[in-house]
Specification:
Layout lengths: L1 H4 L39 H11 L3 H24 L4 E6 L5 E5 L5 H10 L3 E4 L4 H16 L3 H4 L2 E7 L4 E6 L15 E4 L29 E6 L2 E6 L2 E4 L5 E5 L17 E6 L2 E13 L5 E6 L11 E2 L7 E2 L2 E2 L7 E4 L7 E14 L2 E9 L11 E4 L2 E9 L7 H10 L6 E5 H7 L4 E2 L3
Parallel strand pairs: 2-3, 5-6, 16-21
Antiparallel strand pairs: 1-2, 4-5, 4-18, 7-8, 7-11, 9-10, 9-23, 10-13, 11-12, 12-13, 14-15, 17-18, 17-20, 18-19, 19-22, 20-21, 21-22
Protein name: Protease
Organism: Rhodococcus opacus
Keywords: Hydrolase, Protease, Signal
């Protein structure tokens, strides 16, 4: 999709500001599967409130659904190879039931047996995943033959696993006339571009900050090339040499071309009225295909990143226990200064959307509200690291209640787009997320 879709613009998430207190550091360990028993009592009260408010789930149900989602993800990895003619995707339905979609094909009977043996429910669908992927390629080819006035209407495309069809994002829903082979595809309105959040002050204060720990969701200011931004820290981790790093959004680096050089953008902790001491520099930044940055901690700030927590202002943290892959229907929660903890479900995976002149590929979307001030932070499912907040379709609104009403009137709903953390790790051998 890159040749065509990369030409089209999509909404860009705004940077975030958070300011939180200290937390005890956790040692790094190999990722482990989250256990439901005993885990619910370890979740922060603020996260539990968001789970119940946004998902109408108990903490135990939230963890159970998250674990089911990862079991589906593992099944899907093997099913794509073993049953290519029949496999049509996996998802959790509204009740949290694990579903495997299967189309007619030579390997369908074997696929049904494997799915049922794994404890999943089978749903018959018309088209296999490979058939839908072929339609995506055909769409890309068709767009390349169209004049810019038509081709530039399309800003992104995704496979809707649950409804077994394609979804296109367009500037003008009524003005896009699709070819016959795409008559079954749904077209939805693209959101308007939102500007990044600029800081009101990035002047260092006179006194240094206490050496408090920095967690996922905490505030930092980035300064480079004469431009300053405010963002949320992502997941703490270690690089290939074992040094402490933080994985946040690529668009939070104001001088991306200089990442990893002596001219790299600098990262500062933030407090009311200004910035504190420098905490690191941008070692690597990616915005095309995957939206992420890796901040390498300064020696003086290294111990502040030696924890595996995610939090919101004034709240206790949730400890990250491993990483996860996005699965449609799986419960997710994100942290952010503007909206705090908000929760939803994964609505699309392996999605391609355009962000200005760049392409955000392999992304997933969620049903969460994220406003200006929430981008760059963490998205979790259960206690597993899932992704980095990248773009929102409601970032221009002042509060989520307004965003909910406006999108409802337009027949839409809030969406938050993200880069999967496992894509970032795969692209950077030796990079790890801190876990316990």
């Amino acid at each position: 999709m890159r040749s065509s879709i990369a030409r089209r613009a999509a909404v860009f998430g705004s940077a975030a500001l958070l300011l939180l207190g200290p937390v005890a550091a956790s040692a790094q360990a190999d990722p482990v599967e989250p256990g439901v028993s005993g885990q619910a009592g370890k979740l922060p009260a603020e996260l539990i409130d968001a789970i119940q408010r946004d998902l109408s789930l108990s903490p135990d149900q939230y963890l159970e659904h998250s674990e089911l989602g990862q079991k589906l993800a593992e099944f899907a990895k093997s099913a794509r190879t073993q049953f290519p003619d029949a496999f049509a995707g996996t998802w959790l339905d509204n009740a949290g039931t694990p579903i495997v979609g299967l189309a007619d094909g030579a390997d369908k009977d074997a696929a049904v047996a494997a799915a049922e043996k794994a404890g999943f429910q089978v749903k018959d669908v018309a088209q296999s995943e490979s058939s839908l992927q072929a339609q995506v390629k055909s769409l890309d080819g068709w767009l390349d033959t169209q004049p810019p006035a038509v081709a530039d209407l399309v800003r992104g495309v995704a496979i809707d696993i649950v409804n077994n069809d394609l979804v296109l994002r367009a500037d003008n829903v009524g003005g896009l006339q699709l070819p016959d082979f795409l008559k079954g595809a749904r077209v939805v309105q693209s959101p308007a571009t939102a500007a990044p959040l600029l800081p009101t002050d990035l002047t260092p204060i006179a006194e240094p900050l206490p050496a408090d720990a920095l967690l996922g969701g905490d505030a930092y200011g980035s300064l480079g090339g004469g431009v300053g931004l405010r963002c949320s820290l992502g997941f703490n981790g270690t690089d290939s040499s074992g040094g402490p790093v933080n994985i946040t959004a690529g668009h939070c680096d104001p001088n991306r071309d200089a990442a990893g050089t002596s001219e790299a953008s600098e990262a500062f902790s933030l407090v009311p009225g200004g910035t504190g001491p420098r905490i690191g520099t941008f070692a690597k930044t990616s915005l095309d295909i995957h939206d992420y940055s890796i901040i390498r901690a300064d020696d003086s700030a290294a111990r502040r990143f030696e924890n595996n927590g995610v939090r919101v202002p004034g709240a206790a943290p949730v400890a990250i226990t491993g990483t996860a892959d996005p699965i449609v229907g799986a419960p997710v929660c994100k942290s952010g200064l503007t909206t705090g903890f908000t929760c939803g479900v994964v609505t699309s995976v392996a999605q391609t959307v355009s962000v200005g002149e760049r392409t955000l590929a392999d992304s997933f979307s969620t049903s969460m509200c994220a406003l200006q001030g929430d981008s760059g932070g963490t998205i979790v499912t259960g206690t597993l690291a899932l992704g980095i907040s990248s773009a929102s379709n409601v970032g221009q609104y002042p509060i989520c209640q307004v965003a909910d009403v406006v999108t409802f009137v337009l027949g839409e709903s809030p969406e938050l787009f993200a880069t999967p953390i496992n894509e970032v790790l795969a692209e950077n051998p030796g990079l790890r997320v801190r876990t316990s």
